[in-house]
Structure formats: structure tokens, C-alpha cells
Design brief:
The chain contains 22 helices and 31 strands. It is of the alpha/beta class. α6 (about 190-200) packs parallel to α7 (about 220-230) and α10 (about 305-320) runs parallel beside α15.
Length: about 700
């Protein structure tokens, strides 16, 4: 983004004056600006109308008093392009282009979009094909439909690629404090990362929520996200459209394990972005972050007036790596003195109905539990429905006790309803004013807290080391698949262990096996055999010269039947490697958007069977490699299982780090590496089978 466009974006986000160009949609924008409370000059431009929204119309842009800071453009496609050129020439700030029919419609629209870009110049152009921007803080709504939402002076900046979803967010009955709502549309000029970069600087923004269908510039997004992280503005992301990649370039198992969803997950993990799975989770998570903040750790104090609520809190906490620390002996003794005899001392604590709604009984209990030391507090309360208000004060009494006790200990706090709609608007708004998050649905609440805790931990880890940019991708030429012998020679030169081996002809194979010592494995060497097993191009555990000779003869016949063009008279003879503690599959491939991505998975025959895999983006530090390993279900086997020795984790991490460095070295021209299996042993890790593709 050019400096001038950035300055224009600032004008658009906080305009002194607004112009609207169009008819019916411009009328709606006038209504929405009035609804939100915009008091600046409002200039409709329409030669066929005298007034729009009670404002006198100007016949042309030339008639405006001065170049407007913000414009809402809702006219046909060609007229929109002409208007943009005029606005750019007169020095306008930014434009929301509601007009559709551009790149989203195919070749004809793409041509029009190119002309749109040329016409826009340095304008801050939102869209086209978008709803626009709502600034809740400064009360500006460049928005073509009725909108909801409120702002207590701070809040979340929500940026979406879907107009309707952004509108739905504004209508949500969740009391999320909103600072900005942006519908980015086609992102022809201004993209998600541009809005993140600009809005992260604004003090009223406490968190950023993103709905992402796709990113156009991953390195630019990375820079903006790291900036937001450094400014203490957590990002929460909902990624939709996560179908797996079906790339013709991928010839390994990686295509079935690491698709679009996995790469985005890896990107979010890399940047400390909280990933969510639904719009409700996004709203609940940004709500907690904006109102309650980021807890220092995972230790929670939980309160309910129901045994069922307590067990639900405990169940979700266990799944989400949150901890309800049991009361220590002194705390437990004090609680027994304060609670009715029917209560069980625990955390989460069901303080029982005999003291429900009685502040002089509940406040001491809450104070005692919280004083033990926790990182956040949550109480489960389902308020009565409107019209059933006679008991509401009893609920409010416990809310007030909870708020006071949490505030006394400086704990981020949430009041959570079991059922999402069981927290009325008046109560939600009261809680926001008190700095307590009104959370709706226990699962979404616990996921939001877990996401906030994870973000805090990840932010600290990233801050502890200087962020390293992702490995960039350069356009390559044709691809070349190395034969396995050549691939292993390259890895060995980089310090990665491979089996002892010899390469020779069919006539030499038995002699080479004798030199290595039995048992041996024999493989046909051919760049046309990426997966040897299915072609019959590998034999394992051969224990004599006769077995080797017979295996070679049979191998030639099998490969000839599979693909005669792949047959060679070159054979790789390898010493068998001792049985490992664990077999892993490790792959690295160069993605055109994300750069280098490493996938770790259960290896050997378990690759497809278990689909136990995790993906991370490179470069990665040693702790990040270790953290990725810990995410695998089979990682527990590395510590030894049922009498088996433990794996040498440090040697494994050495291997992974060397492999990553090898792939990142541009001189190696690596497009893809797959090691399957990587034998992880008690002493070292050995690349048993290798596929390598160069660009």
C-alpha cells in the first residue's frame, strides 16, 4: 500500500464528510448514518433527485464543496469506473464500491476490474462487491442495509470477505462490543491485511476478528498479523472454504494430509492467531478478549449453582487444556465452614441453592475460592426469560458478588449461560459495563477462554525470539524427480542419517550385499518409481546372496509388468536398519502461497490408516518443532511404550532441523521431500525411504 493510499484509508476510516453516489442504496446509507449518529456533512450526488435522506442532492461530483473523505458508490459498473477516476483526480480519500459485476463474474468482469484499479489511483478503495465500513467509535456507517451493534467506547474490529456475514454479525444478540465492521468484498486494492495493519494501531480496537475465504498475499498478511501481535491486539480467525488441495505437482502422500485447511492452521499457529470453527465462536472469543482480556495462564476458578453446570465446565476444561485447580487444604477447610452442609467442596464449585442470591453468604465463598490463586474466573448463570422477572434480582445478587470478588483478585471474568439465549440484553450490557464478559453457551465460553489462554502463551513465545519471515517462494521451471540413491546422497551430505548402501547393476547386487553384511534391502533405482512398493521395486530382509539374486530377477519382471519404461539396471542395496521406536513420515513441500510447509505424521503403513498428522510453516525454531511433534497422537510412543526404549528426541529434532535447513537452501532447489518412513530410534533417526523433487 502506497503512503498516499494509507493516508486516504485513514480519511475513509474516520471521515469529516461523506458523499453518496446512487439512488435507493444511497438513501439507505443516509438512513444508516443517521441511525448511528453521524453529524458531519453528508453530500448525496444524483442528477435526477432533489433530496436523499433529507439532504439536498448535488448534480455532479464537481458541485461538491470539497473532495470528500469518504464516498459510498452504488451505481452501474461503467459509471462506477468513471466516478472513481473523477474522485481520484479531485483528491477524495476513500471509496466503498458497493457495485458488483467485476472479478467475481469471470473474464469480462476481470477486464472491468483492471480498469477499476487504473481509475482508482491512490484512492483507498474498499471492494468492489462489498457492503462497506461501519465505524462504531466515530459513528459513521457506509453501509447499504439496516445495521445493529453497539460500542462502549472500545471493541473488536471485524473484517470479513462476506457482506452478508458481516451484516449478520451486526445483528447478533450477543452484546459484542464493536469498534469497526469491514466488508472487504473482492479486495481489489485494499485487502484483509491492509485493514489489519491500519486498525491494529487504533487504541479503541482491543481485538480483531477475521472471516477469511482466501488470502492473496500471505507474506503481507504475516507482516500485518505480527504487527497486531506486537501491539497486543489478538486476532481471531474463521477460515471457510477449506477443501483439500488437489495439486498435480504433488506426487507424495502429503497431498492427502496437508491441504488448504492444514496450511491455514499452520499459518495461524505461527502467528498466534486463534482459529475458530463457527461465527458464534468468533463472536464469543472476540467478546471475551475485548471485555475480559488475555488470562495469564490456564488455571480457572468455576462457580455454579448446579451440579450439572459444574460437570460441564470440568468436562470442557479437560478437553481444552484448561485447569480447575482443586482447593488446597486451607481453602477447602474455609469453604466447608462457609457452605451449606449439602455442598461438596471442589472447583468448579456448586455453592448450592440454600445460599443462592444471598450476598452475605455468597461473597465470602467467592472470595475464599478466588484467593487461592487463579488466572480467570467463570460463573454459570441462566437468567430468567423476559416477563419472568420476579427472581431476576436473586441472579443479579450472585452476579454482583462474583464481579466484586473477581475484581478484588484482578481476575479476567465471565458470566456464562448454559443455553446461549438465556442471558438477556440488559444483563449482557450491564456485564460489559462492569468489565465482565457475558458469555453465551458453555462450550463456546470455554473454547473462547482456551483460545485466549493459548494466544497469551503463543504471544509470549513469539516475543521471546525475533520473528523470522516465512520462507518465500520463487517461480520455478520444470520439475525433476530424483532417484532414491541420488536423493539420499544429498541428505547424507547435509548430516541426515541414511542406511549404509551400495549402488550397482543386477549382476553386482549379490556382491554388494556381501560387502554390507546381511540382512539387506534391495531397490530398483529409477526416477520413474516414486512409490516402489506398488511397482514391486523393493525387497526387504534378504539374508543371502541367493535371495538377493532371486529378488533382483523377480523385481525386473514386476517393474516391467507395472511400467516397462521405468525399468533400469541400477539397484540400491542397503543394510537393514534396526527396528525403530517409532516410524514417522516427514515431508516438506514448497507451496505457491505459504512457502515451505513441513508435515509430520505417523509413518509407514500408518500414514493413510491413522491420518495422524500436523503441519507447520518454515522456518521453525527447535521449540516449535518439538511442539509440533507433541501434537501427534503417536508422540507418546517416543517416550517408550510397554518396555520399549525411549526414542532419542534430541537426535530427532536435529534431523528435522537439518531437513528444514536443507529445503530452505535455495541452492538445493527443493520443491518437495518426503521421508517415509523415518526410523526414529533410541540413538539416531534414519531416513529409510526418500522421495525428492527439484524445481
Amino acid at each position: 500500500m502506497t503512503p498516499r493510499r494509507r493516508a486516504n484509508l485513514e480519511r475513509l476510516l474516520k471521515p469529516r464528510h461523506v458523499a453518496v453516489i446512487g439512488g435507493r442504496d444511497a438513501e439507505t446509507v443516509a438512513t444508516e448514518c443517521k441511525r448511528i449518529g453521524f453529524t458531519g456533512p453528508f453530500w448525496p450526488v444524483n442528477p435526477k433527485r432533489s433530496h436523499i435522506g433529507g439532504h439536498a442532492c448535488f448534480a455532479t461530483l464537481d458541485d461538491l464543496p470539497e473532495a470528500p473523505d469518504a464516498v459510498f458508490l452504488a451505481v452501474p459498473k461503467e459509471a462506477a469506473i468513471e466516478s472513481l477516476a473523477k474522485l481520484s483526480a479531485m483528491g477524495a480519500g476513500g471509496v466503498v464500491c458497493y457495485t458488483a459485476g467485476f472479478g467475481e463474474t469471470g473474464a469480462e468482469g476481470t477486464d472491468a476490474e483492471l480498469r477499476l484499479i487504473q481509475a482508482a489511483g491512490d484512492l483507498a478503495l474498499v471492494g468492489p462487491n462489498c457492503y462497506g465500513i461501519i465505524n462504531y467509535v466515530d459513528k459513521v456507517a457506509l453501509w447499504p442495509f439496516a445495521h445493529g451493534g453497539s460500542c462502549p467506547g472500545y471493541g473488536a474490529a471485524i473484517i470479513t470477505q462476506s457482506g452478508m456475514l458481516s451484516s449478520d454479525f451486526t445483528m447478533s444478540q450477543r452484546s459484542v462490543p464493536f469498534a469497526y465492521m469491514v466488508s472487504a468484498g473482492n479486495q481489489t486494492l485494499l485487502r484483509l491485511e491492509d485493514f489489519v495493519d491500519a486498525l491494529a494501531e487504533r487504541p479503541e480496537v482491543r481485538a480483531i476478528g477475521l472471516h477469511i475465504e482466501g488470502l492473496k498475499d500471505v507474506p503481507a498478511f504475516e507482516r500485518a498479523a505480527l504487527k497486531s501481535l506486537g501491539l497486543g491486539k489478538p486476532i481471531v480467525a474463521l477460515k471457510t472454504g477449506t477443501s483439500r488441495l488437489g495439486s498435480s505437482l504433488t506426487v507424495s502422500h502429503t497431498g492427502s494430509l496437508s491441504g488448504t485447511a492444514e496450511l491455514y492452521d499452520a499459518l495461524f499457529d505461527w502467528l498466534g492467531i486463534v482459529a475458530v470453527e463457527s461465527p458464534a465462536q468468533l463472536l464469543e472469543t472476540v467478546k471475551f478478549l475485548c471485555v475480559a482480556g488475555v488470562p495469564k495462564g490456564p488455571r480457572l476458578a468455576g462457580l455454579t449453582c448446579s451440579g450439572g453446570g459444574a460437570t460441564m465446565l470440568a468436562d470442557y476444561a479437560e478437553r481444552l487444556d484448561l485447569a480447575f485447580t482443586p482447593p488446597d487444604p486451607a481453602t477447602a477447610a474455609a469453604l466447608r465452614d462457609q457452605l451449606p452442609a449439602t455442598a461438596t467442596v471442589s472447583n468448579p464449585l456448586d455453592y448450592t441453592t440454600p445460599i443462592w442470591g444471598i450476598p452475605e453468604r455468597t461473597r465470602p465463598v467467592f472470595d475464599t475460592l478466588f484467593a487461592q490463586g487463579h488466572d480467570a474466573a467463570v460463573i454459570v448463570q441462566d437468567y430468567p426469560a423476559p416477563g419472568l422477572d420476579e427472581s431476576k434480582q436473586w441472579y443479579r445478587n450472585d452476579t454482583l458478588s462474583f464481579v466484586a470478588a473477581a475484581r478484588a483478585q484482578g481476575l479476567p471474568a465471565a458470566v456464562c449461560s448454559t443455553i446461549s439465549e438465556n442471558l438477556d440484553a440488559e444483563t449482557r450490557n450491564f456485564l460489559v459495563a462492569e468489565g465482565v464478559a457475558p458469555m453465551q453457551d458453555i462450550e463456546d465460553c470455554m473454547r473462547a477462554i482456551a483460545g485466549a489462554v493459548w494466544h497469551g502463551k503463543r504471544r509470549s513465545a513469539i516475543a521471546a525470539g525475533a520473528p523470522v519471515p516465512l520462507v518465500s517462494v520463487k517461480a520455478g521451471g520444470s520439475l525433476r524427480l530424483l532417484d532414491e540413491a541420488a536423493a539420499k546422497k544429498r541428505l547424507a551430505a547435509s548430516g541426515i542419517a541414511v542406511p549404509r548402501s551400495r549402488t550397482g547393476t543386477a549382476a553386482e547386487a549379490s556382491m554388494l550385499a556381501q560387502e554390507l553384511g546381511f540382512p539387506v534391502a534391495v531397490k530398483m533405482v529409477s526416477a520413474m518409481l516414486p512409490h516402489k512398493t506398488e511397482a514391486g521395486a523393493v525387497r526387504l530382509g534378504l539374508r543371502s546372496s541367493d535371495e538377493v539374486a532371486s529378488a533382483v530377477q523377480r523385481m525386473v519382471a514386476d517393474v516391467t509388468a507395472f511400467n516397462a519404461a521405468a525399468v533400469t539396471d541400477s539397484f540400491l542395496v542397503e543394510a537393514m536398519v534396526e527396528s525403530p521406536v517409532v516410524e514417522l513420515m516427514v515431508s516438506i513441500r514448497r507451496d505457491p502461497q505459504f512457502g515451505l510447509a513441513m508435515t509430520l505424521a505417523a509413518g509407514g503403513v500408518l500414514v493413510e490408516l491413522l491420518a495422524d498428522a500436523t503441519t507447520l510453516l518454515l522456518p521453525a525454531t527447535r521449540p516449535e518443532l518439538a511442539r509440533a511433534l507433541s501434537r501427534l497422537r503417536i508422540s507418546r510412543l517416543l517416550d517408550g511404550y510397554r518396555g520399549k526404549p525411549a526414542a532419542n528426541r534430541e537426535a530427532l529434532l536435529d534431523t528435522l532441523a537439518r531437513l528444514a535447513a536443507f529445503a530452505a537452501d535455495e541452492a538445493n532447489a527443493v520443491t518437495e521431500i518426503e521421508i517415509n518412513p523415518l526410523f526414529v530410534g533410541s540413538r539416531e533417526s534414519t531416513a529409510v525411504d526418500v522421495l525428492m523433487q527439484l524445481g
